[in-house]
Amino acid sequence: MTDDVVTRPRATPSRVRMTGKQRREQLLDVGRALFAERGYDGTSIEEVSARAGVSKPVVYEHFGGKEGLYAVVVDREMELLLDRITTALASATHPRVILERAALALLDYIETSTDGFRILVRDSPVAHSTGGFASLISDAASQVEHILAAQFKARGFATKHAPMYAQMLVGMVALTGQWWLEVRSPKKADVAAHLVNLAWNGLSGLEHKPRLTGE
């Protein structure tokens, strides 16, 4: 006589419930990836909620809609990049080394936060957002303006022109970074060296084989 074998249904693992903060971070990560991949117009709340495994009302609850999610993603990336640039500017005293480290800070950010930079270099369609490439350049320029003003004063130049030169300098570095985002050649350090070569020496004094002096 054989014993009857009772087959019991397997217990399904319970889904780990996220806290409100964890869910918000998850939605930001999902939104960041989608905005980088498809842009603002190509991203929908339906896609965000589907990738996150939640219903659309959850997204609306945290951000109020796609515009709110986009604005927070952009603000975070701006804060991260500007923090890196500010740290680089404060880590040296010689103006050439400051320029070298600022250029490397931007290229480092592009290399490690490619999705974030892709979002920043697109013009923001959200009117109240601080995002957008022009805004990025303006905010970064404000970080270096006082440094240029100090150098101008020490060399007898009019300090009133420092804001304009700050825009020129940061714009050159940022646009070169946008180009390097796609080509990734030459190497990061070489790009930074050539940027500094032009900014520091000018066209009339370009070095044939520029290199970073502050490393």
Q: What tags apply to this protein structure?
A:
215 residues; mainly alpha; Tetracycline Repressor, domain 2; 9 helices; 67% helix; 0% strand; elongated
Tell me what you see in this structure:
The chain is mainly α. It has a domain of 131 residues: Tetracycline Repressor, domain 2, CATH 1.10.357. 67% of the residues lie in helices and 0% in strands. It is built from nine helices and no strands. Helix 4 packs parallel to helix 7 and helix 5 runs parallel beside helix 8. The chain is elongated and about 60 Å long. The protein starts with 19 loop residues before the first helix and ends in a 14-residue tail after the last helix. The relative contact order is 0.10. The model has no long low-confidence stretch (mean pLDDT 86).
The span between the termini is 83 Å
CATH class placement of the domain at 75-205: Mainly Alpha
CATH topology of the domain at 75-205: Tetracycline Repressor, domain 2
- The total beta strand count reads 0
Helix content: 55-70%
Mean pLDDT: 86
CATH architecture of the domain at 75-205: Orthogonal Bundle
Tell me the quaternary state: single chain
- Main β sheet profile: none
CATH homology superfamily name of the domain at 75-205: Tetracycline Repressor, domain 2
User: Treating each run of at least 4 consecutive H or I residues as one helix, how many helices?
Assistant: 9
Low-confidence stretches: none
Strand content: under 5%
Any idea what the shape is?
Answer: elongated
Helix-strand topology string: HHHHHHHHH
- Computed structural class: mainly alpha
